């Protein structure tokens, strides 16, 4: 019989574990068809996340003397969802360190991991909590819907992409986000991982401040079946021609009024948070996350008068895929990606509706996306709308200013290097 061994190396240059896969027992159920729950380790046990209590949403208290919101837990913080940049030794080591700290210092805290993350880090726990043989590390995992219904706090270890991935799991209310910088980009990452003990203690004891960032809702309505699906975007929604040699043709309406027909490589709709992403590369403005707005930035338009726009956050934007005049509708699909993740292509006649997650004003006669109308009817009160968007744990009032200076080198002077004279 052949035995498959699993090798895992870390950046310190040594092998963490060499474990025969056939020696691992696993529990595979109908509810978790792709998740393996290992039972052999004396250091770790993985339990179903459905056993935990439902999430405990905090309150966000605004102050006239601060741009930030105070984070206040009406109850106790119980369930922490930790996510990481995949298959990175640095983030794996950081996750092990962070979970060890939580289980040692705050034994009442429950740690939740996505199934693939749990499987990746499972064998790297080399001790029990507090070195107590009767206290293995308890990790909870399950389906995405189960995880999002239980998480009180989202902790990310990686770069901006890790935050986007973690936030995308939540279809409605997002828990506060505590992000540690362990990646390549860091517009959303105010904290170094070395500060994790101090910062988590502040969050736990309601002494942290949050910056409120808005999300966009993208409602996709297919012409053929009329069904509407909803995708949330923290950064941007990008419509483009993909591999097609032809420019895209899109009719754009704002609050029911026809704005323009886009003839370009594509167009980006971004939140203020996403203004430093693709929109910036395409010539869009840099917008503070405190300015409620939606950015419309064309990508290589045919007309030189088609310039970037900054629209009110209350705008309802409708985009309809169309074709050139006197042209058949074949081969006119448009690619769409949301926060860098490709979605199903759009065809001629398909529509997308872009609105802010909170604060949209629908003018009389404006078509409200069916899924949006249904979602609004299910909101219990204004508190849900108040908690819409993303509250990111902030380091100071000026994190954004420091970001554009340190990361973008905003308005940096020219660098002149004198050439050496030839001998």
UniProtKB/TrEMBL annotation:
<dbReference type="GO" id="GO:0034599">
    <property type="term" value="P:cellular response to oxidative stress"/>
</dbReference>
<keyword id="KW-0521">NADP</keyword>
<dbReference type="Pfam" id="PF01513">
    <property type="entry name" value="NAD_kinase"/>
</dbReference>
<dbReference type="GO" id="GO:0003951">
    <property type="term" value="F:NAD+ kinase activity"/>
</dbReference>
<dbReference type="GO" id="GO:0019674">
    <property type="term" value="P:NAD+ metabolic process"/>
</dbReference>
<protein>
    <recommendedName>
        <fullName>NAD+ kinase</fullName>
    </recommendedName>
</protein>
<keyword id="KW-0520">NAD</keyword>
<keyword id="KW-0418">Kinase</keyword>
<keyword id="KW-0808">Transferase</keyword>
<dbReference type="InterPro" id="IPR002504">
    <property type="entry name" value="NADK"/>
</dbReference>
<dbReference type="GO" id="GO:0016226">
    <property type="term" value="P:iron-sulfur cluster assembly"/>
</dbReference>
<comment type="similarity">
    <text>Belongs to the NAD kinase family.</text>
</comment>
<dbReference type="InterPro" id="IPR017438">
    <property type="entry name" value="ATP-NAD_kinase_N"/>
</dbReference>
<dbReference type="InterPro" id="IPR016064">
    <property type="entry name" value="NAD/diacylglycerol_kinase_sf"/>
</dbReference>
<dbReference type="GO" id="GO:0042736">
    <property type="term" value="F:NADH kinase activity"/>
</dbReference>
<dbReference type="GO" id="GO:0005759">
    <property type="term" value="C:mitochondrial matrix"/>
</dbReference>
<dbReference type="InterPro" id="IPR017437">
    <property type="entry name" value="ATP-NAD_kinase_PpnK-typ_C"/>
</dbReference>
<dbReference type="Pfam" id="PF20143">
    <property type="entry name" value="NAD_kinase_C"/>
</dbReference>
<dbReference type="GO" id="GO:0006741">
    <property type="term" value="P:NADP+ biosynthetic process"/>
</dbReference>
């Amino acid at each position: 019989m052949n035995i498959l061994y699993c090798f895992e190396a870390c950046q310190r240059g040594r092998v963490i574990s060499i474990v025969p896969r056939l020696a691992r027992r696993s529990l595979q159920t109908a509810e978790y068809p792709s998740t393996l729950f290992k039972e052999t380790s004396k250091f770790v046990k993985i339990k179903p996340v459905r056993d935990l209590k439902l999430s405990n949403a905090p309150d966000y208290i605004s102050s006239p003397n601060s741009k930030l919101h105070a984070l206040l837990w009406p109850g106790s913080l119980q369930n922490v969802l930790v996510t990481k940049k995949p298959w990175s030794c640095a983030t794996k080591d950081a996750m092990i360190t962070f979970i060890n700290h939580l289980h040692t210092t705050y034994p009442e805290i429950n740690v939740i991991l996505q199934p693939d993350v749990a499987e990746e880090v499972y064998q790297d726990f080399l001790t029990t909590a507090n070195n107590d043989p009767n206290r293995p590390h308890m990790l909870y995992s399950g389906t995405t819907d189960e995880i999002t219904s239980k998480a009180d706090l989202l902790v990310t270890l990686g770069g901006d992409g890790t935050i986007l991935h973690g936030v995308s799991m939540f279809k409605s209310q997002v828990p506060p986000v505590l992000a540690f910088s362990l990646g390549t980009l860091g517009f959303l990452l105010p904290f170094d991982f070395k500060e994790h003990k101090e910062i988590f203690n502040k969050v736990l004891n309601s002494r942290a401040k949050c910056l409120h960032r808005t999300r966009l809702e993208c409602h996709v309505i297919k012409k053929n079946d009329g069904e509407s699906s909803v995708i949330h975007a923290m950064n941007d929604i990008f419509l483009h021609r993909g591999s097609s040699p032809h420019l895209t043709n899109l009719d754009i309406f704002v609050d029911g009024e026809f704005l323009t027909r886009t003839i370009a490589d594509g167009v980006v709709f971004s939140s203020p948070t996403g203004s430093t992403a693709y929109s910036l590369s395409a010539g869009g403005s840099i917008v503070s996350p405190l300015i409620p707005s939606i950015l419309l930035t064309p990508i290589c338009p045919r007309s030189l008068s088609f310039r970037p726009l900054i629209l009110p956050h209350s705008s309802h934007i409708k985009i309809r895929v169309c074709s050139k005049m006197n042209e058949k509708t074949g081969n006119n699909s448009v690619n769409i990606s949301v926060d860098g993740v490709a979605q199903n292509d759009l065809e001629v006649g398909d529509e997308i509706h872009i609105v802010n997650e909170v604060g949209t004003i629908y003018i009389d006669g404006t078509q409200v996306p069916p899924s949006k109308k249904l979602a609004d009817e299910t909101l219990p009160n204004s508190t849900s709308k108040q908690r819409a968007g993303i509250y990111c744990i902030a380091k100071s009032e000026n994190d954004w200013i420091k970001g554009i200076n340190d990361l973008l080198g905003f308005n940096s002077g020219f660098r002149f290097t004198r050439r050496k004279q030839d001998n």
